[in-house]
Specification:
The complex is a heterodimer. By secondary structure, chain A is of the alpha/beta class. Chain A contains nine helices and twelve strands. In chain A, helix 5 runs parallel beside helix 6. Chain B has a single domain, classed as MetI-like fold, CATH 1.10.3720.10. Classes of the chains: A alpha/beta, B mainly alpha. The structure holds adenosine-5'-diphosphate and magnesium ion (MG).
Chain lengths: 269, 222
């Protein structure tokens, strides 16, 4: 395994926005994450690669406590989330969980828009219900974010009338409306028809120009190359290799990484 | 057949039947509105992974669904006072019994309805920081409810018919008044024909409204 403190990782001065230390996660006897250490500085964009079942989703889901870590520590701006309970598992109270999730947004492979609400209502939901923003202000905010993802004209539609690509852009607007410090994307384009992938990736690339901190699980290696400031390769619940996109994607040192990348023979940077 | 119907005498006493009808409607309204709300909480407990709430809810539901409602009403009217020292009026005992019985059925409807919601919906709500209560109110119930309307309608229809059982513990609802009237007038055939019509007129619009509601909810998406 590669020395994770190698020069390719940007130096971290202030407390990292996100710190993951010794993260373990088991489902029953199935140990999925076997000790993940990761420090993320503000503005970093991390692409996470790995074959199916390597624990990529579980890692993202532990970061915002959609899954409860079995052991380890998750800290935002140097402050740990939750307390270590019996057996090492971390328990966080519901209030703390909700605060965490307003700071860490998540975008799913399946979009998961609320079908009984219009596009605009979907985006307003978090600010109004969770943050208690008044509806007028929330509406303006939501319209603003819909504009950013290029969907102002769809505000009054119901999600099922939209294409997959448009739905995913609404989901991004819904996450942005909470004004999170960190965005987690779990294979945001994997369930899209190929011709719709581009519009979603364009939106994500646009966000990276704003200096947002993002973690993105993807199989779009070409995109990862342009998007990421750092690339992680996950293998069997561990960070097997990491570095700049050039290092990991063009000159991987580890055999497993090389084998993984060979399977994507058709990607271009 | 050469029986001559004598509706005139029954209709002349229609004020009795109307008085009974009022109590029937009141029993129904109390028991059904209570059961819709209470059923949600029992249903949540029933669907919960927490052992103790789950066990209590399961026991509750099974007891009420697997004993005759007539026995339940009689139990609340005669046995409860002996155990607790509190003697409810016949109406209270009936309302309580029908409410608790219907809650058990509504709990199962809620549980099934909420479980039919795709897991991604709960996740999406949690991911923007919603509490479980907010999720329920804003995401789960609005979506699941349209799918539950037919089942709740059936329950409502059953309950409306079940209210007639309250007559056996002397609640002076429609069925009770009808029995009195039929013995006074010696005209059971006429009395119960009219009572059947009244029940039908009472219940059928509810069924029609539920059909309409279901169509509207389905066309609205989801
Ligand atoms: N909720 C869960 N319960 C049980 N096993 C799970 C659960 N979520 C994920 N797993 C298991 O964890 C492993 C890693 O899953 P995942 O993190 O989704 O991998 P990836 O996203 O890299 O494909 C898989 O073997 C999967 O079956
Ligand atoms: Mg995954």
């Amino acid at each position: 395994m590669v020395d994770v403190t190698s020069a390719s990782v940007p130096p971290v001065l202030a407390p990292p926005v996100l710190a993951v230390e010794g993260l373990h996660k088991s489902f029953g006897s199935n140990e999925v994450l076997k000790g993940i250490d990761l420090k993320v500085a503000a503005g970093e964009r991390i692409a996470i690669l790995g074959s199916s079942g390597s624990g990529k989703s579980t890692l993202l889901r532990c970061i915002n406590f959609m899954e409860t870590p079995s052991a380890g520590r998750i800290a935002l701006d140097g402050t740990s989330i939750g307390v270590e309970g019996r057996g090492g598992a971390i328990t966080a109270r519901s209030g703390e969980l909700r605060r965490l999730r307003t700071r860490v947004g998540m975008i799913f492979q399946q979009f998961n828009l609320f079908p009984h609400m219009t596009v605009l209502e979907n985006v307003m939901e978090g600010p109004v219900t969770v943050k208690g923003m008044n509806r007028k202000e929330a509406r303006a905010t939501a319209q603003d974010y819909l504009k950013r993802v290029g969907l102002s004209d769809k505000a009054e539609q119901y999600p099922q009338r939209l294409s997959g690509g448009q739905q995913q852009r609404v989901a991004i607007a819904r996450a942005l409306a909470m004004e999170p410090e960190i965005l987690l994307f779990d294979e945001p384009t994997s369930s899209l028809d190929p011709e719709l992938v581009g519009e979603v990736l364009d939106v994500i690339l646009g966000l990276s120009k704003e200096g947002r901190t993002m973690l993105l699980v993807t199989h779009e290696l070409g995109f990862a190359y342009h998007f990421a400031t750092r690339v992680l390769f996950l293998h069997e619940g561990r960070i097997h290799e990491q570095g700049t996109p050039d290092e990991v994607l063009k000159n991987p040192r580890e055999e497993r990484t090389q084998a993984f990348l060979r399977r994507f023979s058709a990607f271009h940077f | 057949m050469n029986y001559t119907f004598q509706f005139g005498e029954i209709l002349a006493n229609s004020d009795l039947l109307l008085r009974g009808l009022k109590l029937t409607i009141l029993l129904f309204a109390i028991a059904f509105s209570g059961a819709l709300v209470c059923g949600l909480f029992i249903g949540l407990a029933r669907g919960s992974a927490l052992r103790v709430p789950n066990l209590i809810a399961t026991a509750y539901i099974e007891i009420f669904r697997n004993t005759p409602v007539l026995v339940q009403l009689i139990w609340f009217y005669y046995a409860l006072p002996a155990l607790s020292g509190w003697q409810p009026s016949a109406f209270t005992a009936a309302a309580l019994g029908l409410f608790l019985n219907t809650s058990a059925y509504c709990a199962e409807i809620w549980r099934a309805g909420l479980q039919s919601l795709p897991a991604g919906q709960w996740e999406a709500g949690r991911a923007i920081g919603m509490s479980e209560w907010q999720l329920l109110r804003r995401v789960a119930v609005p979506q699941a409810f349209s799918r539950m309307v037919p089942a709740f309608t059936n329950r409502g229809v059953e309950l409306a018919k079940m209210t007639s059982i309250a007559s056996t513990i002397t609640v002076q609802e429609l069925m009770y008044e009808a029995k009195m009237l039929s013995t006074q007038t010696f005209l059971p055939l006429e009395t119960f024909t009219i009572v059947a019509v009244i029940y039908f007129v009472l219940i059928y619009p509810g069924t029609l409204a539920a059909y309409a509601l279901e169509r509207r909810l389905n066309s609205k998406g989801a």
